[in-house]
Design a protein that fits this description.
Elements: E1 35-40, E2 58-60, E3 66-68, H1 81-96, E4 100-103, H2 104-111, H3 115-131, H4 138-146, H5 149-158, E5 180-183, E6 186-189, H6 198-210, E7 218-221, H7 222-229, E8 242-246, E9 249-254, H8 260-274, E10 277-282, E11 296-300, E12 303-306, E13 318-320, E14 333-334, H9 335-341, E15 347-350, H10 356-364, E16 371-374, E17 377-381, H11 385-393, E18 396-399, H12 401-406, H13 408-413, E19 417-422, E20 439-443
Parallel strand pairs: 1-4, 6-7, 9-10, 12-15, 17-19, 18-19
Antiparallel strand pairs: 1-20, 2-3, 5-6, 8-9, 10-13, 11-12, 13-14, 16-17
C-alpha cells in the first residue's frame, strides 16, 4: 500500500516581527494602553479548503426541515485568499510599526516540536473531533504524530489529515482574539461555542500551556473553572466578548457565543485571581451582534465607537453581575450608566455617523470594531466611510497605512488623534474587524 499523500501546504516563513518585545510577562490592563506585544494569524492554505457548503448556516434534512449545518464555518462568503492575505499583511504592517508581533502559526509549530506535547494535542484533537461527529482515524493519528511539526500544523489547520477524511478546515483562527485573552496579568483560555471552532481552542490552549511567550503567566481556564464550580450547561466564552476597561473592571458579552455559565466562570476566576470586577452585558440574539466587540469598542480612554441604537432608549444594552449563579441574575442597568457609576464615563461616537441606514450597513462591516494601538491611535476598516467621517469631525486625522508606517514614531508621540484606515473587503466576509484579528499580549498601563 502506498503512503498517504501529504496535505497541501505552503511554507510560512517567519515574518519581520516589528519592534523588540517588551520585557516582562503578559499584561493587559486596558483596551487602549500603548501596544507592546501582539499575536495574529496570517491566513494560509486552510482558506483554499473552504467550500460553498461551509458557508450555509442551515441545510434541509431528508424530511425537508431546516437544521443546523454541521459543516458551517461561520464565514459569510468564500474569500479570495490573495486579497485576504494582502489586507491582513497591511493590518499587521501597521501593528509592527509600533509593537512586536507573533504569528499563531509559528507559535503552535514551535510547541508541537515536543513529542509529548504533540501526543497530548493529538489526543485532545481526537476527542474533540469525535464529539463533533468527525472521528480521527488511527491512520490519521499516526500520521500527525510522525510528521514534521510544520506539516502537522498544516494538516490540522487545513483539515486535510492523511488517512482521515472529512475534517473541517480552520479559517476562523484568523480571528486570533477569540480563543485567548489577557486580562490584567491573567491569560484566559476560552472555550468556543460552535463546533467549527473547537479545534481552534485545542491548539490555542496548547500554545498558552507550552510556549515561552506565556511562561509564568497566571492561567485561567474557563472550562476548568466551570467544572470546579459545578456548573451545568455549556460554559463557553470567546475573546470578542471580553473587554478590559481598567485594571479593576472588565466586560463580558453574553449572547450567541458566550453563555451565562461561561460568563459566571470567567467572572468568578478573574475576581479571585486578579481582583477584577466583571460586568456581563446582555447581547441581542442576532448574527450582527455575535460578540460584544462587534457593537462596542474603545477609541480612547474616555471615548468609544458603538452601534448607537444598542446604547440608548428601550433597546439599550443591560448589564448584570455574572458572579450570581446562572439563571438567578435579574434586573439590569444600562451599560453606559453602569460604567459611569464605576468611574468610567464614556462619550460614544456612533458607528455610521448616526445615520440609521449607514449605521446598519457599517456595523455589519465592522465599523464598531476598532483596535487601539495607543490612546487615540486606532485602526478601522476604510470601507466604513460614514464612521470615519464621524471620527474626523471628532478630531481624528484619517491616514493611509503607508503614511502611518512611515511616520509611526511621530504619530505615536504627538497629541493628535489618528485613525489608520485599512482595506477590509475580504477580511470583513468572516464578520470580524481589526480588534477581532488582533490579540494583545502586553500593553502599557
Amino acid at each position: 500500500m502506498s503512503a498517504p499523500p501529504t496535505p497541501p501546504s505552503q511554507p510560512h516563513p517567519k515574518v519581520h516581527a516589528g519592534a523588540e518585545p517588551a520585557p516582562g510577562r503578559p499584561s493587559v490592563a486596558s483596551e487602549t494602553g500603548r501596544l507592546r506585544v501582539c499575536v495574529g494569524f496570517a491566513p494560509g492554505a486552510e482558506f483554499d479548503f473552504v467550500l460553498p457548503r461551509h458557508i450555509e448556516p442551515a441545510v434541509r434534512g431528508s424530511d425537508g426541515a431546516l437544521r443546523d449545518n454541521p459543516d458551517y464555518l461561520l464565514f459569510d462568503d468564500l474569500v479570495l485568499r490573495e486579497v485576504l492575505t494582502r489586507e491582513h499583511r497591511r493590518l499587521f504592517d501597521v501593528v509592527r510599526a509600533v509593537a512586536h508581533v507573533h504569528d499563531l502559526r509559528d507559535l503552535i509549530t514551535d510547541v508541537l516540536e515536543a513529542p509529548s506535547v504533540r501526543a497530548a494535542v493529538v489526543d485532545e484533537v481526537a476527542r474533540t473531533e469525535a464529539t463533533a461527529g468527525r472521528p480521527l482515524s488511527q491512520t490519521g493519528r499516526d500520521w500527525l504524530l510522525a510528521a514534521s511539526s510544520r506539516s502537522c500544523v498544516a494538516a490540522l489547520l487545513s483539515g486535510e489529515i492523511p488517512g482521515s477524511p472529512g475534517h473541517l478546515p480552520m479559517p476562523n483562527w484568523l480571528f486570533a482574539r477569540d480563543c485567548l485573552a489577557v486580562v490584567g496579568e491573567a491569560v484566559v483560555t476560552m472555550r468556543p461555542r460552535h463546533p467549527a471552532r473547537w479545534r481552534d481552542g485545542v491548539l490555542a490552549r496548547a500554545v498558552v500551556a507550552h510556549h515561552p511567550l506565556f511562561a509564568g503567566a497566571r492561567g485561567v481556564d474557563v472550562a476548568e473553572e466551570a467544572a470546579a464550580l459545578g456548573l451545568s450547561g455549556p460554559a463557553c466564552v470567546e475573546g470578542g466578548d471580553v473587554l478590559t476597561l481598567s485594571p479593576s473592571l472588565a466586560l463580558v458579552g453574553v449572547g450567541r457565543r458566550t453563555t451565562e455559565a461561561g460568563a459566571h466562570a470567567l467572572a468568578t476566576a478573574l475576581r479571585r485571581e486578579t481582583d477584577t470586577e466583571v460586568l456581563a452585558v446582555r447581547l441581542p440574539d442576532k448574527r450582527a451582534a455575535m460578540h460584544l466587540d462587534t457593537v462596542f469598542t474603545l477609541l480612547d480612554r474616555d471615548l468609544a465607537v458603538a452601534y448607537a441604537p444598542l446604547l440608548h432608549g428601550d433597546a439599550a444594552l443591560q448589564v448584570y453581575d455574572p458572579t450570581q449563579p446562572p439563571g438567578r441574575s435579574s434586573g439590569g442597568q444600562d451599560l453606559l450608566a453602569a460604567l459611569a457609576e464605576r468611574g468610567r464615563p464614556l462619550e460614544v461616537l456612533p458607528c455610521g455617523d448616526g445615520e440609521p441606514r449607514a449605521a446598519l450597513r457599517e456595523q455589519w462591516t465592522d465599523g464598531a470594531n476598532a483596535f487601539c494601538l495607543a490612546p487615540g491611535r486606532v485602526v478601522l476598516y476604510g470601507r466604513n466611510r460614514a464612521t470615519l467621517r464621524a471620527l474626523n469631525r471628532r478630531g481624528f486625522r484619517v491616514v493611509a497605512p503607508a503614511d502611518f508606517i512611515a511616520n509611526a514614531p511621530l504619530w505615536m508621540s504627538g497629541d493628535e488623534r489618528v485613525v489608520v484606515a485599512i482595506d477590509g473587503f475580504e477580511l470583513s466576509r468572516g464578520r470580524g474587524g481589526p480588534r477581532c484579528l488582533t490579540l494583545p499580549v502586553q500593553r502599557d498601563a
